[in-house]
Design brief:
With about 120 residues, the protein is mainly alpha-helical. The chain contains 5 helices and 2 strands, in the order ααααββα. The mean pLDDT is about 90.
């Protein structure tokens, strides 16, 4: 049997599952979560991120796979795609209120898991 000195992370994972089940959040797969993390980190750093920036992340899969996941994040309402102001061939990726609130909830769950 494995004993855990600190199970904060496991409590955090459990709280995420409970939250997702209770509020009916549409589950994102691991790739979608990773892409959304990248979008949110760019947002946090006030950096512009384009669809093309996400599509070149070869470590996550093919361009086709990535495009499908970006499209799904848009359909689920986690991101919004906006035409670039200067180059209309490009689209900026912007997190929506749904995404921002999702990360606020994750932060609260993390704090609860660690501190209480």
């Amino acid at each position: 049997m494995i004993t855990l000195i600190d199970s904060s992370y496991l409590r955090f994972l459990n709280r995420i599952r409970v939250m997702e089940a209770s509020i009916g959040v549409k589950k994102l797969d691991a790739l979608e979560k990773s892409l959304l993390d990248i979008v949110m980190m760019a947002f946090l750093n006030q950096a512009e991120i384009l669809v093309g920036d996400l599509l070149i992340l070869r470590e996550f899969g093919t361009q086709s796979t990535l495009h499908g996941r970006v499209t799904n994040l848009n359909k689920l309402g986690y991101i919004k795609l906006v035409l670039h102001a200067i180059d209309k061939r490009k689209k900026k990726v912007i997190p929506t209120k749904l995404a921002i609130n999702h990360y606020k909830n994750l932060s609260k769950l993390l704090a609860q898991s660690v501190y209480g």
